[in-house]
Amino acid sequence: MMKNFFRKEPVLVIAAAAAVISCFFVLPDGRYAGYIDFKTLALLYCLMTVVAGLRDAGLFELLSRKLCMGAGNLRLLGLLLVLLCFFSSMLVTNDVALLTFVPFAIMVLAAVGQEKRMIFIIVLQTVAANLGSMLTPIGNPQNLYLYSHYGYSLTAFLRVIAPYWCLSLVLIAGLCVSFLPAVPVTFTTEEKYDASQGVGKPGIRSNTCGEAGGNMLKKDRLILYTILFAVCLLVVMRLLPWPVMLALTVAALAFFHRENLFKADFMLLLTFIAFFVFSGNLARISAVDRFLRTILEGRVYLTGVLASQAISNVPAALLLSGFTNQADALLLGVNIGGLGTPVASLASLISMKLYFRTPSARSGRYMLIFTVVNAAFLLVLSLVVYMAGGLGGI
After folding, report:
1. pLDDT tens, position by position, 144-164
2. Lower Cβ count inside 10 Å, N or C end of the chain?
3. What are all long-range contacts of 21-25, with beta carbons under 8 Å and residues at least 24 apart?
4. pLDDT in tens, 281-290
5. CA separation for the pair 42, 225 (Å, rounded)
């Protein structure tokens, strides 16, 4: 059982072990409570449950079907599938975007007989979700934490991230246009293909698009979760106290949709808590504090990128933020550092697992294309960051 849990939640297990070990060097006391960023945890919980509700309402599936059924050729279809991940990830996080649109892409590409383009499009969807999500504080967990930790204003946050987000959009769209041919595609009307299980006949049911598609949308749920999402945004903009948001969200879910109270990723929340304890204790060990600050001095961006490759960008942000005030460099490092290895952003593992479940999956070819595309994006964006200068922590 423990072996299976470690395999499923390796980051949590390592973070918890590190937190426990650090407690032997800094014995638990009243200062431990100050380690925990309760606002970030509350926002993460509320956003995860609210986004789960929006998915249940059918909003994302209806949007994707209406857009993609209008594509007349493979180039436009691929571009739409990738940009759905890029833009949606800004609001619903990169992992939710991939959980929603990668299975849909697998289904659609099978329906139009373009399975040979599946790997390239899914890899680009993964890159798009990781880079598109960096524009907003709610796009991914590390942004939400760093936005709160460093006290960013929305304007200051966008000033740092927006240029690289725009460049990423151009590069991603350019790859789609350059490598996907404009061959005609025709959708079948056979039974729906279950991309997550690899069963069923590839096709798209005619009653899932157009006017009939509107039946998929649960309007009462959509209204409720849209209101709750707006409440979360008010907290992000510091217009509403986070305890009010938490109370409203829990009360609304308990009254209307009790099952959604438990749809948050509680393992991620526990991982945050473990890293809060670990980094908080490290900061109180003077020798370790001096060592880490010396390592980071003048190398915050590079350290953020490299740390992300090994432990993923969320833990890297949580760990390094306690030892540097160079917020802009760290923000860029852990966001762009989400490219590279599959571990660099745990969201990348989602799309990989979804593809590997398909009947004709070619894991070796997927890893090759994933590595080449991610390395190219990481190199180009890092060169631009370096040439831009102005960030003393690079």
Report:
1. 999 999 999 999 999 999 999
2. N
3. 22/277, 22/278, 22/281, 22/282, 23/277, 23/281, 25/281, 25/285
4. 988 999 988 9
5. 16
